[in-house]
Amino acid sequence: MFSLAIHGGAGTLPKQEMSTAMEAACRAALRAALHAGKDILAGGGSALDAVTSAVSELENQELFNAGRGAVFNAAGEHHLDASIMDGSNGQAGAVAAVQGIKNPVQLAREVMLHSPHVLLTGKGAEEFAASRHIPRTPESYFFTSRRYYQYLLARQQDQVLLDHAQYTSPKGKIGRAHV
């Protein structure tokens, strides 16, 4: 018997502000992540394998602020973070400010299992990723129009915006960062 809980991120997104299509896409993506982990556990796999698989699935979606759906930083780039912990032994691994790493959670796991460190950052983490054969992807993979519009608004207003901030698209339409 096992249990697995996932979530698509923090923050409040009022239901009335989410389109039916967006809600359906989010639910489908969350189901895919849940099943990715559940299938591993049902097959006798480890909790660590299940968590890595479920989070990787979330990172592959542009709907969440992780991996492919991550927000742009002030320089217009994607610097990604991830962490993982094994509750059975208290080991942990994390990466911060990595670029071009398709699934940062997989790199965090490698840090935990194959290095003497808990946290690696930036270029050092990327060099470690290469030594561990962690897949890289071009920066363009992380680009989404939704996050780009949010980035443009933040620059225009010269402020930090929350994940669900209102934005104006280049066509002048007012929207929300989540649609």
Summarize this, please?
The protein is an alpha+beta fold. 39% of the residues lie in helices and 13% in strands. α2 runs antiparallel to α3.
Key descriptive features of the protein:
5 strands, globular, single chain, 39% helix, two-stranded antiparallel sheet, disordered C terminus, 5 helices, 179 residues, alpha+beta, three-stranded mixed β-sheet
Describe this structure in words.
- The structure is a single chain.
- The chain has a 3-stranded mixed beta sheet. A two-stranded antiparallel ribbon has the order 4-5.
- It is globular.
- By secondary structure, it is of the alpha+beta class.
- The protein contains 5 helices and 5 strands, in the order H-H-E-E-H-E-H-H-E-E.
- The relative contact order is 0.13.
Terminal residue distance: 38 Å
Gyration radius over CA: 17 Å
Indicate the percent of residues in helices: 25-40%
Unreliable parts: 167-179
The geometry reads as globular
Briefly note the structural class of the backbone: alpha+beta
Question: How are helices and strands ordered from N to C?
Answer: HHEEHEHHEE
Number of helices: 5
- The pLDDT mean sits at 88
Number of strands: 5
Q: What's the story with the biggest beta sheet?
A: 3 strands, mixed
Strand content: 5-15%
> How are the strands of the biggest sheet laid out side by side?
1-2-3
Topology, element by element:
Layout: H1 20-42, H2 47-59, E1 80-86, E2 91-98, H3 104-114, E3 119-121, H4 122-131, H5 145-157, E4 166-168, E5 174-176
